[in-house]
Automatic annotation (TrEMBL):
<dbReference type="Pfam" id="PF01152">
    <property type="entry name" value="Bac_globin"/>
</dbReference>
<keyword id="KW-0813">Transport</keyword>
<dbReference type="InterPro" id="IPR009050">
    <property type="entry name" value="Globin-like_sf"/>
</dbReference>
<keyword id="KW-0408">Iron</keyword>
<dbReference type="GO" id="GO:0020037">
    <property type="term" value="F:heme binding"/>
</dbReference>
<dbReference type="GO" id="GO:0019825">
    <property type="term" value="F:oxygen binding"/>
</dbReference>
<keyword id="KW-0479">Metal-binding</keyword>
<dbReference type="InterPro" id="IPR001486">
    <property type="entry name" value="Hemoglobin_trunc"/>
</dbReference>
<dbReference type="InterPro" id="IPR019795">
    <property type="entry name" value="Globin_bac-like_CS"/>
</dbReference>
<dbReference type="GO" id="GO:0005344">
    <property type="term" value="F:oxygen carrier activity"/>
</dbReference>
<dbReference type="GO" id="GO:0046872">
    <property type="term" value="F:metal ion binding"/>
</dbReference>
<dbReference type="InterPro" id="IPR044203">
    <property type="entry name" value="GlbO/GLB3-like"/>
</dbReference>
<comment type="similarity">
    <text>Belongs to the truncated hemoglobin family. Group II subfamily.</text>
</comment>
<protein>
    <submittedName>
        <fullName>Hemoglobin</fullName>
    </submittedName>
</protein>
<dbReference type="InterPro" id="IPR012292">
    <property type="entry name" value="Globin/Proto"/>
</dbReference>
<keyword id="KW-0349">Heme</keyword>
Length: 133
């Protein structure tokens, strides 16, 4: 890891999570949990049978969101993650499952606790905004 990546006062959040490999670890764990743990059955049921495209897409989105490469936005000019979820029937149960699985994925991938808490708070706000009123 470079000096910049370990200096938390200067490093971007993307550096702090370990770059693309760090983001990918979290995303792989997130979809593995969704795929194999019945706790997330309702969330799993909303997704396509093949989760591979989502593994790529969420890795790219989170990389950009954390200050890394902007591929997700470059490939979707004008896209907004909140709008992308507007037509989805997201309720309290599926929103809570998403946030719970992501929180576990971050902890199990050893995201540093302070960064994990910061991300968790942002995900909670996003998930609340994505729920159907
Ligand atoms: C609130 C709970 C959430 C639920 C229930 C949910 C559900 C879904 C579903 C069903 C899809 C489509 C999957 C498919 O086609 O197989 C999707 C796509 C996606 N979601 Fe979520 N989502 C939630 C929150 C979030 C949050 C907080 C983020 C970002 C931090 C996010 C990022 C994405 C991305 C990047 C895609 C792919 C969109 C694309 O690349 O075009 N989701 N979500």
């Amino acid at each position: 890891m470079s000096a910049a990546a370990t200096d938390t006062t200067k490093a971007s959040l993307f550096d702090r999570i370990g770059g693309e490999a760090g983001v990918r670890d979290v995303v792989e764990r997130f979809y593995d949990l969704m795929e194999h743990d019945p706790t997330y059955a309702d969330l799993r049921a909303m997704h396509d049978a093949d989760l591979l495209p989502m593994r790529v897409s969420l890795t790219q989105f989170l990389s950009a969101w954390l200050g890394g490469p902007r591929t997700w936005f470059e490939e979707r000019p004008g896209a907004c993650i909140m709008s992308a979820h507007r037509a989805m029937p997201i309720d309290r149960r599926t929103a809570a499952q998403w946030v719970h699985a992501m929180s576990r994925a971050m902890a199990e991938s050893r995201v540093e606790p302070e960064l994990g808490t910061q991300m968790q708070q942002a995900f909670l706000r996003m998930a609340n905004g994505m729920m159907m009123r």
